Amino acid sequence: MNEAAGRWVVDTAHSYIGFAVRHLMGRVRGRFTGFAGEIVVADDPARSSASVTIEAVSVHTGHEGRDERLRGKDFLDVERAPKITFASTGLRHDGDGWLLTGDLTIRGVTKGVEIVVEPLGVDPTGLHGERRAGFDGRTAVLRSDFGLDLPRGDKVVFGDRVDIHVEIEAVRSD
User: Fold this and answer.
1) Global pTM value
2) What does the pLDDT look like over 108-125, one tens digit per residue?
3) Beta carbons within 10 angstroms of residue 13's beta carbon
4) Rounded distance, CA 170 to CA 144, Å?
5) Looking at residue 88, which CATH number applies to its domain?
6) What whole-number distance in Å separates Cα of residue 158 and Cα of residue 136?
7) Per the structure, how many domains does the chain have?
8) Tens digit of each residue's pLDDT (9 = 90 or more) over 78-94
9) What is the domain extent for residue 28?
10) In a domain? residue 45
11) Which residues, 6 or more positions from 50, have their beta carbon under 8 angstroms from its beta carbon?
């Protein structure tokens, strides 16, 4: 039996959903502070699933002016599309790790993505006696695939590629 099998709820206090994108001559890093999710690990890991809902308004880059622009209609358009969602469609073993496929929806546009997932292990006793599991995931998407504003003119202000990194700590809930 798979020791991680069961239903897990994302512990948002100990998890991270972040991104990095080219900005002018460097990179801007940011994160989302409002999100919830669940992972269901099956005895056969390939039958497992994951889902996450992110509050788009919770974007945080450390610069309030930039955050407000990202919340606006040219980017996340939080008035019209307050949620970013991910729902898995499959999981398969890939070399030393796992490849999680799923549907990512941003601004009402849904695209398939592949996330390289590294299971970090299961702690059967946790900090307060609860079972905990950890997962690390990475993927990249193109802003243009989701209809987000593109650079204008000859100067690249924001790059099209957005690198996404998630660090998930989840608590067993069944």
Assistant:
1) 0.92
2) 999 999 999 999 999 988
3) 6
4) 32
5) 2.40.128.110
6) 26
7) 1
8) 999 999 999 999 999 98
9) 6-172
10) yes
11) 37, 38, 39, 40, 86, 87, 88, 100, 102
